Automatic annotation (TrEMBL):
GO MF term set: aminoacyl-tRNA deacylase activity; ATP binding; isoleucine-tRNA ligase activity; metal ion binding
Presence of the UniProt keyword rRNA-binding in the record: no
InterPro entries: aa-tRNA-synth_Ia, Ile-tRNA-ligase, Ile-tRNA-ligase_type2, Rossmann-like_a/b/a_fold, Val/Leu/Ile-tRNA-synth_edit
Protein name: isoleucine--tRNA ligase
Highest taxon listed in the record's lineage: Archaea
Reactions accelerated catalytically: tRNA(Ile) + L-isoleucine + ATP = L-isoleucyl-tRNA(Ile) + AMP + diphosphate
Amino acid sequence: MMHLNNLSGDCFWVWHGRGLRNPLGSLGYKVSYTKSQTWGRCIVFKKPSQNLFGPNCEVEVLSFWKENRVFEKSVETRRGKPLFRFLEGPPTANGLPHHGHIRTRMFKDLVLRYAAMRGHYVPRVAGWDTHGLPVELEVQSELGLKFKEDIEAFGLSRFAEECKKNVFKYETEWRRLTERIGFWLDLEHAYITFKNEYIESVWWSLKQLYNKGLIYKGFKVVPYCPRDETPLSSHEVALGYDEADDPSVYVKFRIIEGPHKDEVLLVWTTTPWTLPSNVGIAVNPSANYALVEVNGEKLLCVVNRLKAVFGDVSPLKLYKGSELIGARYAPPYDYVKSDGDKYRVVGYENVSVEDGTGILHMAPAFGEEDYEVCRKNGLAFFQ
């Protein structure tokens, strides 16, 4: 067992029951030996300089790396070894870095250093993401431009140049952070996404994929900005996300074919403006549905929601959701003409039985989930 006593402000006494030990010598403590009637054989450890640990020590190491080009040499000395290539997923330099960026950079650096220690040649190329709505919004604010027409009047070329200036607004802070945390990265030869050579490399990559038959034409549901008339990424939507109360409505879809003919599917939707683009209805195949009579109409609703929707009512029949799959119904609007299968009930396990009626209207042009369900079930697409 080891005992450590602080006998004075500048030394420690350490005694080990089985003999002399030097556990702190490797940490920089100066060692001297003495005997004590109280402690027996002892070691006196002089306190090291306060600069040995902490930020000062880190700065010294970083300075040594920089002055001696240790990073560059560590890469070049492994040239010709098995390649481990790294192109950084680039940050946007028009915003200040934060602790989340430190964490991700730490993980990147760990993997790259490990690969180098295993003998790989590991060139590490930095990058700057210079595209995206955040840059444009900040420039619009600085220039006092509110609408797309204002940007066009200002001039697209002039606006693009202002965006290019803005995107490197905090480059110095990003470089300082990267160097301070010891993340070895080639910042001097970084790729920049607005440069023509980068854009052309993306075109080239797409061409290779196209030649190999790996690209197909299809649809993808994305958020859309009506003001700027441009699609948005989910990240961009989150930048200005506000919760709003929207109306919900109940809509009746009458079944026109099969064993459930003339029964009515009671649909609950929070997006009534998408009803003209309806192509299908989804039910939960494993849920229980009830047929009830209300005001002379026979309506279908999931059992869990009967009381919430109708109050006290007795079911005429009970069905599994799977029994309703395939039923054909009359659409709410019949002026939309398009090819393809439509107006059919499909099964979807994620239909909630805790909200609405457990019966969903599907408009693939207005929801990513709707689109995937309709695509898998071979339903048409129109908007």
